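PROTOCOL LOG
Step 1. Enter all chains and additional molecules of the complex.
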Amino acid sequence: MKIKLALSLALASLWHRKGVLALVTLTLTLSVSLLLGVQYLRQEVRQSFTSTIAGTDLIVGARSGPLNLLLYTVFHIGDATNNIRWSTYQSLKEDPRIDWLVPISLGDNYRGYRVVGTDPGFYRHFRFGNDRPLQMQQGQWFDGVFEVVMGAEVARRMQHQVGDKITLSHGTGRISFLDHGDHPFTVSGILAPTGTPVDRAVYISLEGMEAIHIGWETGAPMPGRTVSSEQALQRDLTPKSITAALVGIERRVLTFQVQRAINTSSQEPLSAILPGVALSELWRLLGQFERALLAITVFVVITSLVGLVAVLLTLQAQRRREIAVLRATGASPGLIASLYALECTLLAVTACGLALLLGATGIALASPWLLDTWGLHVALRPLTPDEWKILAGVPVAALLVSLLPAWRAYRGSLHQGLTPPG
Amino acid sequence: MTIVTNATPGNLSQPLALLTHGLSFRWSEHETPIKFPDIQLPAGEHLFLQGASGSGKSTLLGLLAGMSRPTGGQLSVLGTELASLSRRKRDRFRADHQGVIFQQFNLVPYLSALDNVLLPCRLSSHRARRATPTPLQQAETLLQALDVPGSHWRKSVNHLSVGQQQRVAAARALIGSPPLILADEPTSALDADNRDRFIELLLAQCQHSETSVIFVSHDRSLASHFHHHISLTSRQEEAA
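Step 2. Run joint prediction.
Step 3. Record the structure below.
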């Protein structure tokens, strides 16, 4: 068969019918963009999600399920069922198998953003993404009791700079009626964006956390028992308990051993979880939704392809004269059928090209918004092999569905006489 | 079906462009076969095939072009028994050795006039080789000879008048000098002036390239332009 001739005829024919075909191509382009966009974002979200925490071997908290522990320590969702006693934390610190231990104390918020009480070890040991450490965008990690470090999103949304004074609120809810107004905190630094929940939290020292709660033993300020910031500094600010701890193990092979030791500790009921395993488990749960979304977009593409074939079948009636001329000139039924297959495939390739262009422009334009609204870092990157496969699947699917008009044209050519219909 | 005008050509000393004997065709097994007259057309001569609508003119042309296979009888086109060829070979035979002109809608709407004329050379290397000096030059020569204005050659064929479109179709049939041209009522959409001019231009070119022509029309007045003429009668006339 004369492929070159078929290709040039198909191109000329498509161009001749550009008015009608532009609309179907637009539909196909939009659906392919949707498909590609969903797959692209899926990849990005999964990447961002599964690399929310790295380098931490265990997360230890009061006894509860792994997902609950992961959610409140890493994602700041939900609350702890109980605390860990400070003495237990100290004894863990003395375990020679444990390389480092970072305390996490929760319970307050700043305008809806969680306040995390911790120590400088958090800045030193916390890793995200591909083992990336935290970095300061402005200022430095807190040093004083009443200093606070802000996550990038909190600082951006609340428009805070280093040196600003802020008031924390009691409780983890977005709306709180109890403020720690008598203990203002000074912003000592702002973290660089990470695309993780770290961006949506503020960090203070354990001592600071303790100081603002002097006189709050019942859960609310007791008149006469609260103290000023200066008075607080004179007190012993060693915490009595913390919410959880991030653990780095000296030798990785000991991780399971340490996990079992903590889980079976006789000091108090604790749970130690492997953050990677818990993250994958959580993703498996959420993954159902993103797979459903992908399936829906696949159906959208199939619908567009069916629409394309419907248009080609409608055009077929108009093309009987032209086909008769080609047949009379010696074109074989195979060549006629190949015209339909080529036209359909070429349209799909065009739609894919346009979808790539649209997608790239869309991501370039939407990435600041995504970062701002969802804290999602979506940057332009080369497509993954899987994404290329999905994209290549569109022309292949187009070729398959075009077999229907192609087959009809083939059969029609066989039974057509010499003279074209009037 | 009978031969009304007994002017069956036949000069057996010359090679034959067309030889039919006892040729018949039926569209389905339940139908009575259409029987065609015996024809012997020497190469390079022009035959006028006249018949009213329904007389089987187009069916006969379909058989001569190899689009359909005869039900019975002998059909030899340019010395080749068409009935013995496979469908693929008949398509190739048509591309290599025949030029076809229809009544109207002769052109591929998305190709320019020049590209329409060059189409047979792209479908058949045989035709391309015979288009001398080059297919493009021969196409231009033919369009010029057939009086198609040069300004229209590279434009969409939709801008051409019906007469010009028919002349572009004639140029397409003539390119690569095929030994046989089949014309199915090519003048019926033209007015009297354009009709005579078209026939004169076509036959002059065919004379020049020694091409045989089988020209089908219902219009008896055209018969005088041709060496031979045969009249086909319709089944109704036959029954009467």
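Step 4. Note key features.
The interface with chain B takes residues 2, 5, 9, 12-13, 15-17, 321-322, 324-333, 414, 416-420, 422 of chain A (CB under 8 Å).
The radius of gyration of chain A is 31 Å.
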